[in-house]
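lol so apparently i was supposed to do this last week
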Amino acid sequence: MNSLRSMWAKRFKPEKNVLLSYSLFMLIVVAGASSLLGIVLTGFVRGHVIRMHASFYADSLSSAFSSTLPGASKEELARAHDSLEREGLLMHVKTMSIWDSSGVLLYGEASPFIGAVGNDPLVDAQSGSLRFIYKTTSVRGMFDLPRGDLALYLPIRDLRSTVIGVIGLIESDEGLADDLGIAARTIALYVSFAGVAIYASLFMLYFRSYRRQSLYSARLKKSKESIIFAMSSLSSLRDQETGGHLERCEEYVRLLAGELREDRIFRRYVDAEYIESLANVAPLHDIGKVGIDDAILRKPGKLTPDEYEIMKTHCALGASILEAARERLPFESELELAIELTRHHHERWDGTGYPYGLSGESIPLSARIMAIADVYDALRSERYYKKAIGHAESLKIIKAGAGTQFDPRLLFIVETCSDKLERIYNGTPCIS
Ligand SMILES: [Fe+2]
Ligand SMILES: [Fe+2]
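anyway here it is w/ fe (ii) ion bound
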């Protein structure tokens, strides 16, 4: 089955829905980057606001305890606590604990955060850093701070700035929670706007380039089609074939290959790109006739065996013309399909055709389809040496060639497309 279709057709597949793929990819990238940026910024701003808030406690409490802490009893610390509360310095504070510089609890309750391996806030505060735990931060997964509560661990310093103890506060400040919520929402809003703006700009940029590229590709495609038409016209100018043969062959091939897509065996090998490419290069099938002498090409009668041998060389000659063009291309193109179709369109299913006498599936599918189209049009057309044959008679002759001249599995499409084949020959547009 490999020969049903050239390897080129499998490799040369244009990407589908490029715009949609790019849009989705960019949407995922921008949404991911925005979310990450939002999380990082929110964490940064929250930390900054809490540090500013904590610096108030750090200043006032450190000065209150710097002279009383060394050697203070539990009662003295309780009195200092009461005094601070009366002064309104601990307005939102629910609990207060005090440790000395070696980590011994002097006052208040032990916090479940203390003692966390590698993440002990007391150790950090002892070394002079301010530590906080906010919202649902968990320590070792064993304790969750109630939402909106803030745990602060502040170093207490003496006059020489040496850490002499640590104060731990659990604070429940709705105002602070509201401020932090507003800050988080504002950041999320700005980051979302920025994400949408970046996405829209990137999309517009890509869309403009895509449109320009599409226009350029469409022009290139039209140019390629005109060049193929001009090249194939060279052979028809000198040949005795009736006008319009090449254009009709293109339409027959498009029709027949299109019908193959409906077939269980062939639909795995025939897709829209293959059909379009095959139809594009079909007019080139007899380009090798430019190298055949006029005396043979235009002979008004049957060719002698020698003349026929010369005529048969048009397949190899056409293929070599196209191969020379292919040498100039550093990539795979429709020329691969054009070469196999041009070289093999006179092969016969039973192996008695030319130029190589290939048989069965060793004949490329493109050439097997082309053979049916070419023979149908030749039968219908008048030549110097024969009269034109009607549609029904032509179909009968083609069907009689099943298994000898043509691939028998392809002939069902001739039956299915009978009306459309006739319309193409008569120049009536096909409505499919
Ligand atoms: Fe030919
Ligand atoms: Fe032909």
